[in-house]
Write a structure and sequence with these properties.
The protein has helices spanning 5-37, 39-51, 61-65, 69-101, 111-114. It is mainly α. One of its GO terms (cellular component) is plasma membrane.
Length: 142
């Protein structure tokens, strides 16, 4: 049966807050994984730009003794070349973790706010955030 307008509004806010929290959790997980996996690229490109004479031209000792403009350019190019495979690795790790933790299933439909007696998960989906008794078999493409 349909909920009253105020109850529907309250449940809409609760479901919206929960969906926003799940979205922020996904975003945080994505940011942490990409930062860790892309750290070699970030370091290599940073040192390449820092020691190049036409970009930042740092007066650090390693820039004067080890890195000249040619080696700085090589570091910049190397950093951008190794970025592509590391992006693929980072996305594969994120997708694997999101599937294992079932974070994408935790988003709830707004129809739960409209009708009484709705379940916290749809039939055939299981997740830690759902009510007990859901099916644990989950396909990523469903």
């Amino acid at each position: 049966e349909p909920r009253s307008p105020w109850c529907c509004l309250a449940w809409t806010l609760v479901i919206g807050a929960m969906n926003s929290l799940v979205f922020l959790l996904n975003l945080l997980l994505l940011f942490v994984i990409f930062t860790i996996v892309l750290l070699p690229t970030i370091v290599v490109v940073y040192f390449g730009f820092q020691c190049h004479s036409q970009v930042l031209h740092s007066s650090a000792r390693y820039c004067k003794s080890i890195l000249d403009d040619n080696s700085s350019s090589a570091l910049i190019i190397l950093g951008f070349v190794i970025m592509s495979p590391l992006l693929v690795v980072a996305m594969a790790i994120y997708c694997s973790l999101a599937r294992r933790l079932r974070l994408l299933v935790c988003f709830q439909p707004y129809s739960l706010a409209v009708y009484k007696g709705g379940r916290w998960c749809r039939r055939g989906e299981g997740a830690p955030c759902c009510a007990g008794g859901c099916n644990t078999q989950l396909k990523a493409w469903v």
